[in-house]
Structure to design on (486 residues):
């Protein structure tokens, strides 16, 4: 990883962290987006999209309803992709290791959010105690925004540091050489776990009352399945890729 | 004013905290917790130092910003505005969650993912997703401030007329259909790329159906924990049996 790539990745991780809640929510913080962009920075957007897409599927059922604190797979996808791309040829073992690291880092990001929000509480309480005028509140807003950006920068930089460390101690070499499955089967295995998240999302989204289990979700899902098979057969005739 | 409020709504969650939630962001967006009609002295009835508590979906918070600004201009007292702010919290949160988080967002994501799996470049798919989703996102913020500024305290009626509930229902239906599309496309990809594709497709089908039947109960960390367990198991078996 060159210094320019490192700076761009830390910048992307910071932007993705700010995008989760604090600024805009343009969805740069989705793992599919940040993973693909991280891959593009490192010269392999396809692997970035694979790792980011798998993380996206795994956390797809986590809906940000009611201000609940969730894992942050978007910012975590940045070091996860860097890990997957840390050896030439992108063997399946590195994709598996990258996704696993992304899961752990997403959880760590979520936990750090709890601390960050407590800090916000103190900053805003002070602003309101001073009268809650526009100037005081603006200072609180931008202080909180700065702290959130700092959290994103720190998390991404530490994540990339861990990736470097993992390379130094030989884990990357081990994962690349000794993982038991070929790359397509590795991706398929991780996507399988993601399908559980996809199913739970469809169950929640289709339920009018918030309770899954009625027939409507199944009908909609089945209709989509048929469309998907037809589309895939029409665009990529079976057998062409094998 | 509409543009200013819409831009400020982008930062409404900047200082999100467990005590006032979006309250500080809302107060800042409206020019401070003591802002009154233009040219007037600070409102003496406002309890200085009392934090505003406010919760809403961030995109639809613009409705509240517009309506509260319209009421301020019309000379509504701080007490009236406080009561109105409290009354708006529930509907703006629930409607936004249903329309955006459970409908529009997963639908746009799954569409972008489908386009990529079907052969588009990943960067192109990401651009498609961001363009589609942010069309909805920024449109909602702009519409919200406009409808709030126009209708003020009568915004609830305008909100009802917009039938966002119907749109949420359609968006959630589209998300489920697209979840099926992704599953279908992945099934064909499995046939093309994997040995024993039927085994993979059967396992995938069982997991999608299990997820759908259990819904929210499986939505937490379980899929990620499952994936993590698979990776640990893979490396564990390699270490134990020395596979290459």
């Amino acid at each position: 990883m060159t210094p320019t790539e490192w700076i761009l990745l830390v910048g992307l991780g910071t932007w993705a962290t700010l995008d989760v809640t604090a600024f805009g929510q343009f969805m740069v913080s989705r793992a599919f987006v940040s993973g693909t962009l991280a891959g593009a920075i490192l010269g392999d957007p396809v692997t970035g999209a694979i790792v980011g897409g798998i993380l996206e599927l795994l956390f797809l059922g986590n809906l940000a309803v009611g201000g609940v604190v969730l894992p942050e797979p978007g910012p975590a996808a940045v070091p996860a992709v860097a890990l997957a791309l840390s050896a030439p040829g992108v063997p399946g073992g590195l994709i598996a290791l990258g996704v696993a690291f992304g899961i752990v880092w997403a959880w760590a990001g979520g936990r750090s959010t709890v601390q960050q929000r407590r800090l916000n509480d103190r900053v805003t309480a002070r602003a309101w105690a001073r009268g809650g005028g526009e100037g005081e509140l603006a200072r609180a807003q931008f202080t909180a925004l700065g702290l959130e950006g700092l959290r994103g920068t720190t998390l991404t930089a530490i994540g990339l540091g861990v990736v470097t460390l993992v390379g130094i101690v030989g884990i990357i070499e081990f994962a690349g050489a000794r993982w038991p499955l070929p790359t397509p089967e590795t991706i398929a295995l991780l996507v399988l776990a993601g399908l559980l998240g996809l199913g739970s999302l469809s169950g929640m989204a289709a339920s009018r009352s918030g309770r899954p289990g009625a027939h409507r979700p199944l009908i909609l899902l089945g209709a989509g399945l048929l469309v998907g098979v037809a589309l895939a057969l029409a665009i990529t005739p079976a057998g062409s890729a094998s | 004013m509409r543009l200013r409020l819409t831009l400020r709504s982008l930062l409404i969650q900047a200082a999100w905290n467990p005590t006032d939630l979006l309250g500080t962001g809302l107060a800042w967006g409206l020019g401070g917790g003591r802002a009154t009609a233009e040219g007037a002295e600070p409102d003496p009835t406002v309890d200085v130092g009392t934090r505003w508590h406010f919760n809403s979906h961030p995109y639809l918070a613009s409705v509240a910003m517009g309506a509260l600004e319209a009421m301020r201009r019309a000379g509504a007292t701080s007490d009236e505005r406080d009561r109105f702010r409290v009354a708006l919290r529930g509907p703006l949160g629930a409607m936004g969650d249903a329309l955006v988080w459970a409908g529009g967002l997963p639908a746009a994501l799954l569409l972008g993912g489908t386009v990529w799996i079907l052969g588009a470049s990943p960067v192109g798919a990401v651009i498609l997703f961001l363009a589609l989703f942010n069309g909805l996102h920024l449109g909602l913020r702009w519409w919200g401030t406009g409808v709030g500024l126009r209708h003020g305290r009568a915004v609830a009626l305008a909100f009802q007329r917009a039938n966002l509930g119907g749109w949420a229902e359609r968006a959630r239906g589209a998300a489920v259909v697209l979840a099926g599309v992704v599953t279908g496309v992945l099934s064909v990809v499995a046939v093309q790329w994997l040995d024993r594709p039927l085994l993979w497709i059967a396992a995938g089908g069982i997991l999608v159906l299990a997820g759908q039947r259990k819904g929210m109960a499986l939505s937490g960390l379980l899929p990620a924990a499952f994936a993590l367990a698979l990776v640990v198991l893979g490396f564990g078996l390699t270490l134990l049996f020395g596979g290459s």
Q: What stands out?
A: Chain A touches chain B through 125 residues (CB under 8 Å). The first helix of chain A runs from residue 3 to 20. Chain A has two domains: 3-180, 182-242. The radius of gyration of chain A is 20 Å.
